[in-house]
Amino acid sequence: MSKRVLFSPVGGTDPISQDNCYDGSMLHVCRHFKPDTVYLYLSKEMLDFEEKDHRYTEAVKLLSDKLKQPIEVKLITRPKLTDPHNFNYFFEDFNNEIKAIVSSLYKDDELLINISSGTPGMKSALNVMSTLGEFRCTCIQVSNPEKKMGEHTHRNDFDLMTLWELDPDNEDTSENRCSVVKCPNLLLLKEEQNIKSFLRQYDYHAAYSLAKELEKTHSKEAVARYIDYLEFAKERSAFKNVSSLENKLKDVSELLPVSGPNRPVFEYALLCDLKWKRGELSDFVRSLSPLIQELFLRVVVVNIYHDLAKLIKDANELNPYKKTGNINKRPEGGSKEVWDITTMEVLSEEDETVKAILNVFKEGFKKTFNPDERYSNVTSESLCKIIEKLGKNEELKNDISILRHQVESTIRNLLAHKIFYIDEDWIKRATDNLNEEQIMKLLKKVFRYTDVKVKDEYWNSYDRMNDFIIAKIDGLNKE
After folding, report:
1. Burial grade of 4 (CB within 10 A; 0-12, 13-18, 19 or more)
2. Which of 59, 358, 362, 453 is deepest in the core (most CB within 10 A)?
3. Residue 296 parent element (H or E)
4. Model pLDDT for residues 329-387, shown as the tens digit of each residue
5. Where residue 180 falls among pLDDT bands split at 50, 70, 90?
6. Torsion over CA of 384, 389, 390 and 393, rounded to 10 degrees?
7. How far apart are CA 467 and CA 255, in angstroms?
8. Quick one: 394 exposed, middle or buried, by C-beta within 10 A (0-12, 13-18, 19+)?
9. For the CA atoms of 385, 389, 393, 397, what is the dihedral angle to 10 degrees?
């Protein structure tokens, strides 16, 4: 079961004011927040009073009996502290004491700090510490019952029992003068600036990891307004299925500009774009082949032969050793597509386009085409030859040729056999003076000739997502 712990310096009006008989701040916080344990910080003067008549511990005991709730009192004594006004001293000493208290607490325990008792140096130190936000705590301020500056003096005639009997705060109708102080948490604000910086660098894993740390060091509530969106960004940038998060966060659907079965190919293209923006050039060049082949396939379907699926089979379904009874059990992406030459020959008798495609294999692959082979792998090379031979748009054919021959073929062959460093100069040398941005521009152009309807602004999807999440961090409703 969680518990409440109060840390409180002791000041001149504690435990009960001799001037107006109202609770001092320490006792008033105990009255209304009912801590299980209270740590009382005593300077030499206050320790002398405690040793003389136990006024502080006895006052808490009286309150505990009235509330019918046990309150444990622990004393933090400074018998040599004769000048209790040094801010620097208290900033260090309070910090050490509160660290020790925090280390003894469990995850769900609550730390309360009374910032209204003690000297100005004590109050200032506690205020600064709470603003820095190194500890997860609730700071409590207590107002003067007479709405004016109180007298902070102890007279020699202190009589706890008389003051307790006269204390107006013991009445059921008494005012709760406590208020929770909403201190700006500078450490939290600084870390949130770091999260925003990670977002601008497209480093979503780092942004999410930092938010999870803040969840531990501060509270779940501190990051609740944006942590799920950071998880969404992290999962999206890792090319994972985000449908569950999309269902949970209804307003993220607008951040995914392409929907339906065409979403994966566009999200993959965005990820390629992201890799070069992040400077991950090795990953960028390795990611191009699957995208290039997929785009070439879609170009053929849209611009040359709509029923291309009739000419393609899943190689796993043709192999009795790999064929399964339920293809839905096979991992997504586990199929291997092959051209069905037999079907091509049958359809070519009545379909001129199919006949032309079959001729591409016979003429374009003279050295490797074997008429006895019934199947041939679907590759970017075979798709490129179909587009080059049968396509009608010269600009598209030129772009396809560059992507296949200057980019994909060269890069794939080089990376398949050697391990080496990849930088911008290497990409230019490997692709006949193309840089990564020019490669992405070619890919974006080819998208226009596919069934994936992409507007120019869709390519800014990750920047728009960053703006959206930053608005959540700033507490704004981003439309």
Report:
1. middle
2. 59
3. helix 281-303
4. 545 555 689 999 999 999 999 999 999 999 998 887 766 666 667 788 899 999 999 99
5. very high
6. 80
7. 11
8. exposed
9. 30
